[in-house]
Write a structure and sequence with these properties.
- The protein has about 375 residues and is an alpha+beta fold.
- Among the domains are: about 150 residues, no CATH class; about 100 residues, Roll (Pdz3 Domain), CATH 2.30.42.
- It is about 50% helix and about 20% strand.
- The chain contains 9 helices and 14 strands.
- The strands form 6 sheets. A 4-stranded antiparallel beta sheet has the order 8-7-9-10.
- β11 and β12 form a beta hairpin.
- α1 crosses α2, α2 packs across α8 and α6 runs antiparallel to α7.
- The longest helix is centred in the last third of the chain and has 31 residues.
Length: about 375
C-alpha cells in the first residue's frame, strides 16, 4: 500500500509542478502575442488530446492551442510558432509577427523566465496557505540549559518562555532556533521572556561556532547552549492574510538562496555530491509526506517547486537559464548567438544534464540499497 501511495503522490507532484511551470511559459507567450501550437505535460505518445474553444485571443481570434497529456510524465513543453523550427506548420505572411523568433528581446526573455517564476509563485501560495491554515508546533520554551553556554551566561532558565527577540514576536521553537542559528556575527540579542508569569528582558549573545554538515558543508552558526521546545508543550500557530503571505514569500526566498548556496558548495567541493537526489527519493518523500498529512505534503510541494524553479534558472544550455544567458549575450553585443555555437552549447548542456540525471539516480540507488557511496 505504501508503494502505491508513493507512486500516486509522486505522479501528482511531478504533474502539478510541470503543469504550473509550462503554464507560466504558455500564459506569458499568449500575453506577448506568440502563437502557441501545443501545450504538453509529458513526452512521448499522447494519451489525451483536446483543443479548448475558449482560449486567449491572438489578433482578435482565439488561439487554437492543442493540449496534450503524454505517456512519459518526466517533463513537458510548450511548442510555439517559430520559423527556426523545422517541423512548423506553414506560416502565412500575416501571421509571421506571432512567431516567437520575431518578438523583441524583452518579450522572449519574459516568456522564458515565466516558467520558473510560476514555480516560485506556486511555492509562495503553498507556504502562505500553510501559514493561514495554521500548524501545531512546540512552544519556544527552554527545556534544558547547559552550564557553560550562552543561555546560562545570560541567566536564562529552564521553562523560560521566549516572547520576542529584538522586538520580533516569537511564535514557536522552530522560529527561535532559526533566529539563533542566523545570529553568527557575535552580536547580542534583546530577548523578552516570561518566567513564572513575569515578563523580563535579557541580553543574549549567541556564540559563533563552526558547523560541518553533509548537506551544506562547513558554515558559521549561532548557538546558545540550550534545548528549546518539547512535544509536551505545543502551540497553535496561525497567521493573518498579510503576515501569512509575507512569510510565505520570505520562506520561498530563503529556500531559493539555500538551494543556490548548496549547489555552489557542491560545485567547489565544500558539500558532498551525495546531496543530489533523483526521482526515487522524490517518490519516497512524496509518499511519506502525503501519509503524514496535508500540511506536511503542501510544505514538501513548496520545497519541490522552489527546487524546480532554481534548477531551471541555472545558466546551463537546455534549461531556461541557458536561454536567458543567450539573451543576455544578445543584449550586450547586439547580435544573437550563432547557430553553430547554439548547436555546440546545446550538445554540452545535454551531456551535462544526462550526467546529473545519472548521478542523481546513482545516489538514489546507493541510499535505497544501503551501499557505500563513491562520494565522501
Amino acid at each position: 500500500m505504501s508503494l502505491l501511495i508513493s507512486i500516486a503522490a509522486f505522479l501528482f507532484v511531478i504533474a502539478l509542478l510541470i503543469t504550473i511551470h509550462e503554464w507560466g511559459h504558455y500564459r506569458m507567450a499568449t500575453l506577448v502575442g506568440v502563437r502557441v501550437i501545443r501545450f504538453s505535460v509529458g513526452f512521448g505518445k499522447p494519451l489525451l488530446t483536446w483543443t479548448p474553444k475558449r482560449q486567449p485571443l491572438l489578433g482578435g481570434v482565439p488561439q487554437t492551442t492543442e493540449f496534450v497529456i503524454a505517456a512519459l510524465p518526466f517533463g513537458g513543453y510548450v511548442k510555439m510558432q517559430d520559423e527556426r523550427e523545422p517541423d512548423q506548420p506553414a506560416i502565412t505572411e500575416s501571421d509571421l509577427l506571432h512567431s516567437f523568433n520575431r518578438k523583441p528581446l524583452w518579450a522572449r526573455a519574459v516568456v522564458v523566465f515565466a516558467g520558473p517564476f510560476a514555480n516560485f509563485v506556486l511555492a509562495i501560495a503553498l507556504f502562505s496557505l500553510v501559514n493561514w491554515m495554521g500548524m501545531t508546533l512546540p512552544q519556544a520554551r527552554l527545556t534544558q540549559v547547559l552550564p557553560d553556554g550562552a543561555a546560562a551566561a545570560a541567566h536564562l532558565q529552564i521553562d523560560d518562555l521566549v516572547l520576542s527577540v529584538d522586538k520580533q514576536k516569537i511564535t514557536d521553537s522552530f522560529q527561535l532556533r532559526e533566529l539563533i542559528r542566523k545570529s553568527n556575527l557575535g552580536v547580542s540579542q534583546k530577548w523578552q521572556i516570561e518566567r513564572g508569569g513575569v515578563v523580563q528582558t535579557l541580553l543574549v549573545m549567541p556564540r559563533v561556532e563552526s558547523e560541518t554538515s553533509e548537506f551544506l558543508g562547513k558554515s558559521q552558526v549561532g548557538r546558545i547552549g540550550a534545548v528549546i521546545g518539547s512535544s509536551k508543550a505545543m502551540v497553535d500557530v496561525r497567521y493573518g492574510p498579510i503576515d501569512g503571505l509575507a512569510l510565505g514569500a520570505l520562506k520561498t526566498w530563503d529556500l531559493s538562496a539555500l538551494t543556490l548556496r548548496t549547489l555552489g558548495k557542491m560545485l567547489v567541493g565544500e558539500a558532498s555530491l551525495k546531496n543530489l537526489t533523483g526521482p526515487v527519493t522524490v517518490a519516497e518523500y512524496s509518499g511519506k509526506t502525503a501519509v503524514i498529512g496535508l500540511t506536511t505534503f503542501m510544505l514538501f510541494l513548496g520545497l519541490m517547486s522552489v527546487s524546480l524553479g532554481v534548477l531551471n534558472l541555472l545558466p546551463l544550455p537546455m534549461l531556461d537559464g541557458g536561454h536567458l544567458m543567450y539573451y543576455l549575450w544578445e543584449w550586450l553585443t547586439g547580435r544573437a548567438v550563432s547557430d553553430a555555437w547554439l548547436d555546440k552549447l546545446q550538445r554540452v548542456g545535454f551531456a551535462f544534464l544526462i550526467f546529473l540525471t545519472l548521478l542523481a539516480l546513482y545516489n538514489d540507488l546507493v541510499r535505497l540499497l544501503g551501499l557505500h557511496s563513491f562520494f565522501a
